[in-house]
Specification:
By secondary structure, this protein is mainly beta. The protein has one domain. Helix content is 7%, strand content 36%. It contains 1 helix and 6 strands. The strands form 2 sheets. Strands 2-1-6 form a 3-stranded antiparallel sheet, with no helix packed on it. It has a 3-stranded antiparallel sheet with strand order 3-4-5. A hairpin with a 2-residue loop joins β4 and β5 (59-65). It is globular.
Length: 85
């Protein structure tokens, strides 16, 4: 489980608990399944050429820019991991 603090705007919550994130100690970043968010959590995800929006109940909850290596990182910070893979 990962506690995530998205970059704040008026419509975003202060923190998210990402219960299905995979923490691999030797990786610099956690891994998250976009399909899990859509199929199990009810998110709609809009992907453009340089940005991803994670929408829940009509509100953009999380955002992730896509870099030149076709990798996307959520905008915000993780507070820590409580489970290890």
């Amino acid at each position: 489980m990962v506690l995530f603090h998205p970059q704040m705007t008026a419509e975003r919550p202060e923190q998210w608990i990402l219960s299905q994130a995979l923490h691999v100690p030797k990786l610099q970043n956690n891994l998250m399944s976009i399909l899990h968010l859509t199929r199990k959590c009810g998110f709609h995800i809009i992907i453009s050429s340089n940005h991803m929006d994670f929408i829940e109940d009509g509100v953009t909850r999380l955002t992730a820019p896509i870099n030149e290596n076709n990798m996307a990182f959520l905008e915000g910070e993780t507070a820590g991991n409580t489970e290890l893979a």
